[in-house]
Amino acid sequence: MQNTAEQLSPKVKHVDPIIVTTPEPWQWDVLAKAFLNDPTLNFWLGEKTNEQTLSEYFEAMIKDTLASGGTVFASPDQKSVLIWTWLGRDPEDTNEFKKQWHAVLDPEGVKRYYWLYEEGELDLDPEKLEKSYEPAYMGVHPDSQGKGYGGHLLRWSLNYFEDKGYEAPYILASTRRSAKLYCPLVGFHHHKEVFASESDSEPVAVYLKRNK
């Protein structure tokens, strides 16, 4: 998922990302600011959507990701952050940080969260999940959007995993616009749009699958 205001086409030269090993407040601060108007997060959080709630959500998400086999990348200048979650994780596995992001969502938000993934109809091969990751959340600080941070971070991290023999079978994009950017950039195709209700004209998520 990507904050929708970020342009993926590079406009400046970027250095290689760093791999985050220590959770720090600037990481969830960047993500909270980037996702403030994101339709997917708004769908999950509902009326609770604000920068403080998003900050609490992403703090728990980053800590849970690092504790459960995922990887977090960031630009060295702390302007962009990308969370990759490990799909081989046991869905029943839990820890204090997973409990924390569930608490931020509240029970209804948790239901919406898992419903959205079920509606994606991804049909993943269970035998490949051990070697699969999802680029779950990518955010660029508002004062640095439109400078190619997102595109560089996504391409570099995708190559990082592929060089190690891992797959990224899908992306959950927040809008049609961001989906159109992903497809030619990193070789994904449109799979399915998910709407919160039948009367909606804009989806709350657009699923993309990797080209074969």
From TrEMBL:
CDD domains named among the record's database cross-references: NAT_SF (cd04301)
Xref: Gene3D superfamilies: 3.40.630.30
N-acetyltransferase domain: residues covered: 52-212
InterPro entries reported for this sequence: Acyl_CoA_acyltransferase, GNAT_dom
Any one Pfam family match given in the protein's UniProt record, by short name: Acetyltransf_1
GO molecular function, a single term: acyltransferase activity, transferring groups other than amino-acyl groups
Domain of life: Bacteria
Protein name: N-acetyltransferase domain-containing protein
Organism: Chryseobacterium wanjuense
